[in-house]
Design a protein that fits this description.
The protein is of the alpha/beta class. 35% of the residues lie in helices and 23% in strands. Strands 3-2-4-1-10-9-11-15 form an 8-stranded antiparallel beta sheet, with helices on one face. The longest helix is centred in the last third of the chain and has 23 residues, at 426-448. The protein starts with a strand and ends in an 18-residue tail after the last helix. The structure holds fructose -6-phosphate (F6R). Fructose -6-phosphate binds at residues 294-297, 341-343, 346, 349, 393-394, 471, 475, 588.
Length: 591
Amino acid sequence: MCGIIGYCGKQAAAPITFEALKRVEYRGYDSAGIAVLSNGQLLVKKDIGKLDEIEAKHSLSSLPGNIAIGHTRWATHGGVTSANAHPQYDSSETVAVVHNGIIDNYQELRKQLASNGHHFASETDTEVIPHLIEDEMKQGLSLEAAVLATAPKLEGSSTFLAISSLDPGKVVGTRKGSPLAIGIGDHGYFAASDALAFSGQAHQVIPLADTEVVILTADGIEFLDAAGNKLAKESRDIKSKWHDSHKQGYQFFMLKEIMEQPQMLEAAATQDRELFTKIALDILRAGQVIVTACGTSRYAALVGRYLFSKVGKKFCDVVMASEFHYFADSVDKNTVVLAVSQSGETADVIEGVQMARDAGAQIVSIINRPQSLLSEMSDHVIYLNCGYEISVPATKSFLSQLVIFYLLSFSMVNSFDEAVNNLKGISNEVTKAIAWNNEPLRKLSQSLKDKDDFYYIARGINFAIASEGALKLKEVSYIHAEGMPAGELKHGTLALIEPGTPVAVICPDDYTYRETLSNAIEAKSRGAYIIGVSDKKNDIYDFWVKIPKVDELLYPIITVVPLQLLAYHLAVSRGHDPDRPRNLAKSVTVK
Ligand code: F6R
């Protein structure tokens, strides 16, 4: 989490850095700041709040100078305070640093530095970095030499950028764990946690590898390895542009991303048949198949588990990525691990995949963002092709993940083309599910916005959709919600149903219909307000979310869409920003 930016060039750095920070605000948004070098002077402005709020208060973007570093924070060490916001600086206020990661040994380092006379102004782990650099620079080292000397002392993950008034004219950065992309533009050079930050400004990108160091000046970039030797690195063209990521008239990215799902489905289904057939064969031959993922991606994997079993007759287990390492003992070279991650950066997923790789397992990743850490660790990568997903809640990436699992399961029975064919009409059906329900759900959200609890139930292949519907609601509306298999309700949770409690029943007219309906009736008998998501009307529904009829294996792609809309409208009707829910961030790069 946290977004970091650096710029060195011929134009005013602060406005460029501010705009770039806005594009990585999805990585954290509890506080932000910018440090610049102007006429050899280091100037820092930072505060708590979202970027626009800080800009209104402190005019971050009017700081002078052509060199800047910036940060948008998701707090890990130290509360959300102005002192803990980045950039962090040293005792003499000559070195400023922005950091993404967690320094595991910061307490020891802090103690040592304090005993040598350093004073700390924040509770952050980051603050040790400028103090360590300060010490090195006092010995006469250049900023890059000081960064090279400091980086090995930091345990854990630490990708950071530094500037110093003692060695002005440059930004120096290094990476360990969290990503750092270097951009080449017409008027200057960039470093950022995500190339999205400078797309439109830069035309080429170079990813930095772990332990490498980059030096940005107004005249060029230089790369060093951990020993300080110069490195030659190849750049590639930036294809996607930031303008792809504008809200296009929607109030929030979440709604825009829900609405563009029909188009995305086609892109997700445009895949390499050979690759899918190879991966499917490996899955069939494997001694065991484990899918690992977090949050929404894990719910897509749970739908995948049903598809693998129903179509490919292959059982696989889905293990929450944060729990994966507790199962690592059973992973071996006969294991195929499927890692599902929109960002390809999630620390829990990365850790599990690293362990599985070390144990000799084959790694297949299903990722949206290109050039991610996860792609570097995988034997095969399948891309979702759904474009940038800016809003923190995952929506279009989830639908694309479902498409990938559908294609993989059909590839197991050598029917990739049939799957592609089956998916052809699905975009129209998703369009119908949106058109039929968007306005009615907006109205429903007005009447349900003061409810404290929601429950979501479903069976079989739709069960994970109940969990996903509940997760979406919690994330963006802050209403307590639980999703579970419909048959499980009577084993405890039914005790919580009171007159008027909303229960969303995902009840398509498929092999789960009768039993799910019967569980809904049990809830209704206790006074629940039943929201029926179904292609078949039933009198027990207090509110019917009508969906189109599709093949039973494709229902998850349809049923989840109204639940995304319900969560969105509830968030907005409660006055929340669904794109930036409190306490969350889009890329969870800490464990
Ligand atoms: C929910 C959400 C999160 C992510 C989870 C995994 O809307 O966005 O639950 O799904 O943090 O993220 P990725 O898929 O990037 O690994």
